[in-house]
Amino acid sequence: MATLPTPLDEAPRLTKMLGGPRILFKRDDNDGFALGGNKARKLEFLIADAMQKGADTIITTGGVQSNHARITAAAAKRYGMRPILVLRGDSSAEYDGNLLLDKLFGAEIRIVAPDMRDTMPIMQDIAEEMRDGGREPYIIPSGGSNPVGAIAYSNAMLEIISQAVEMSVKVDHVVFASGSGGTQGGLLFGAKALNFQGRILGISDGASRDPLASKIVEIANGCARLIDSHVLVSLKDVDFLDQYAGKGYGILQKEVVDAIMTVAGTEGILLDPVYTGKAMWGLMDLIHQGYFEKDETVVFIHTGGTPALFAYRKELVSFLGS
After folding, report:
1. Interatomic CA distance for residues 6 and 148, integer angstroms
2. pTM for this structure?
3. Whole-number Cα distances in Å, 28 to 7, 188, 240, 304
4. What is the per-residue burial (b if ≥16 Cβ within 10 Å, else e) of 122-160?
5. Cis status of the peptide bond prior to 83, with omega within 30 of 0
6. What is the Cβ-side half-sphere exposure of residue 72, based on CA atoms within 13 angstroms?
7. How many Cα atoms within 13 Å fall on the side-chain side of residue 83?
8. What is the structure's pLDDT at 87?
9. For 166-195, how does the pLDDT look when each residue is reduced to its tens digit (9 = 90+)?
10. What are phi and psi of 201, to 5 degrees?
11. Which residue ranges of the chain lie beneath pLDDT 70?
12. What pLDDT is stored for residue 94 in this prediction?
């Protein structure tokens, strides 16, 4: 589904404005499928697994503005399957951003309470309902974050390393938004398997460190088992910062808007208000604190999500006007 490898682009004006380190963008927002985003990588593996198991219905979950849900709906339709989305949020939410795209892709949408943490029982009930109706369902967890989906980010790690070699660049840090653990788990496994010597740094989109760090390890080691690798990831390998979680998942704040404006104003690249904007706030603050050496190179993975900008237009305008 995705057009790979995605570009690894210099960000010279942002680098100069921040006074170093050298920043490059891994443009997974430009992967060419359903308006882009990191979930397309994972869904290549997950949809293939579903097809192999004879599935005709895909069930997944996320927030009402979930990028994963949007790309899952598109992927299911592309391969002749029925998408059912269990979305946490307000049932009266306007059809805008990703939610509008879900409707355009023809997904069946079931809204549940915004504070519902575990939607797996609901998805399992829907799967049983589908079986009773003669269909064959396949459940994909939030964010596509299990070993089958996450193994795609081991491939992404190989892309980054290969592109850096072609550019004669030594990558010291890979930084990205981390929420459901799949992207970080896949990157960590790939980094260890490929003997990458830099750091893999996830910045929370709202989750707390302790529970997510354990899940990241579980996913990474699940990736290893999938391909009979002897690589082992432990908690000490997980670099995950939750001090930029702010007021929680999906809650916009001034620092995130400032980060979005800074990148748009220096590089002409749009970040989103939920994931990449928050990760860029973290990256910029860490640079100001001296977390990185001036002569180091940081790859920032742009994991996509820009359709959500439109769903946050009122909040964005409010911040921009203040």
Report:
1. 20
2. 0.96
3. 8, 17, 20, 6
4. ebeebbeebeeeeeebbbbbbbbbbbbbbbbbbbbbbbb
5. no
6. 33
7. 28
8. 97
9. 999 999 999 999 999 999 999 999 999 999
10. -115, 110
11. 322
12. 87
Q: What whole-number distance in Å separates Cα of residue 198 and Cα of residue 232?
A: 17
Contacts of 52 (CB under 8 A, 6+ apart): none
CB 174 within 8 A of CB 138: no
Q: How many CB atoms lie within 10 A of CB 103?
A: 12
136: left (phi over 0), alpha (psi -120 to 50) or beta: beta
pLDDT of residue 117: 84
Sheet holding 82-88, edge to edge: 108-112, 82-88, 57-63, 137-139
Q: 138 - beta bridge partners?
A: 58
Q: 306 and 270 in contact (C-beta within 8 Å)?
A: yes
Helix (H) / strand (E) element for 121: namely helix 120-132
Domains of the chain (ranges, CATH numbers): 8-37+147-320 (3.40.50.1100), 39-144 (3.40.50.1100)
Catalytic residues: 66
Query: What's the DSSP call for residue 138?
Result: E
Asked if 147 contacts 226 with a C-beta cutoff of 8 angstroms, the reply is: yes
Q: And the tokens for 58?
A: 């895909």
First to last CA, the chain: 41
How far is 138 from 199, CA to CA, in rounded Å? 35
CA distance 72 to 176: 21
In the numeric block, which tokens belong to residue 243? 């001090």
CA gap 184, 241 in Å, rounded: 12
Phi, psi (deg, nearest 5) at residue 181: 95, -15
Residues 6+ apart with CB under 8 A from 269: 11, 25, 263, 302
Q: What is the pLDDT of residue 219?
A: 98
Residue 47, SS3 per DSSP: helix
- Residue-level pLDDT at 322: 57
Smallest Cα–Cα separation from 284: which of 255, 243, 315, 316? 255
Two tokens at 185?
Answer: 């788990």
> Which sign, positive or negative, has the C-alpha torsion 68, 210, 185, 243?
positive
